[in-house]
Each structure stands twice: as structure tokens, then as C-alpha cells.
Specification:
The chain has 102 residues and is an alpha/beta fold. Helices cover 41% and strands 20% of the residues. The chain contains four helices and four strands. The chain has a four-stranded parallel sheet, with helices on both faces. Helix 1 links the parallel strand 1 (2-7) and strand 2. 26% of the residues are buried.
């Protein structure tokens, strides 16, 4: 599954990506996960399935949904509690649930 986390280019989202990758590896789940700035998202569209928006840039959710959901990409804001506690497993599960994979 190709997942992109949209942030304001902060370090915290990169740390969360690392924890999500670790969680995916533990579960044996194949995932391509990266953090990108909103301006770089247009370069990441090939095969993209899920975009999770950082809580600090939640105002971008509507704009991103408008452009990506017609292409079949699921978009949501990262659960704030899971983000704050850097719970990569929970954020990964949010992406899996959003995409409809179990």
C-alpha cells in the first residue's frame, strides 16, 4: 500500500513514518510510506492509495480531498492522539481501515 503523510515539513511526521514502517514490518504488511510537504504531493500520485494529513495542517484536508478523491485516493486527518503519542501502529491501522484493507 502506498501511503503519504502530508506535513509542514516538520520532523515529527518523519518520526511517525519510521514508526509506521516498523509496525508494517512487524505485521508483515507491505507498505510504501513517506512524509511529504503538500507542495510535493503532486509528484507522488502514481499508485497512491492513502494520504494522511498531519493534525497541524488539517486545514489542507479539503483541498487535498477535492483533488485526490476523484482519482480513488483516500484522504483523512491523522488521529491527533495517535500522532501526538507517535503510535505508528495506530496510524498504520487508520490508513489500512481507510483504504478498506484488513
Amino acid at each position: 500500500m502506498k501511503i503519504r503523510l502530508v506535513c509542514s515539513a516538520g520532523m515529527s511526521t518523519s518520526m511517525l513514518v519510521k514508526k509506521m514502517i516498523e509496525a508494517a514490518e512487524k505485521q508483515g504488511f507491505e507498505a510504501d510510506i513517506e512524509a511529504v510537504a503538500e507542495s510535493q504531493l503532486k509528484n507522488q500520485l502514481e499508485g497512491l492509495q492513502v494520504v494522511l494529513v498531519g493534525p497541524q495542517v488539517r486545514y489542507l484536508e479539503g483541498k487535498i480531498k477535492e483533488s485526490l478523491e476523484p482519482q480513488g485516493v483516500k484522504v483523512a486527518v491523522i488521529d491527533q492522539m495517535a500522532y501526538g503519542m507517535m503510535q505508528g501502529d495506530k496510524v498504520l491501522q487508520q490508513a489500512i481501515d481507510l483504504n478498506g484493507e484488513n
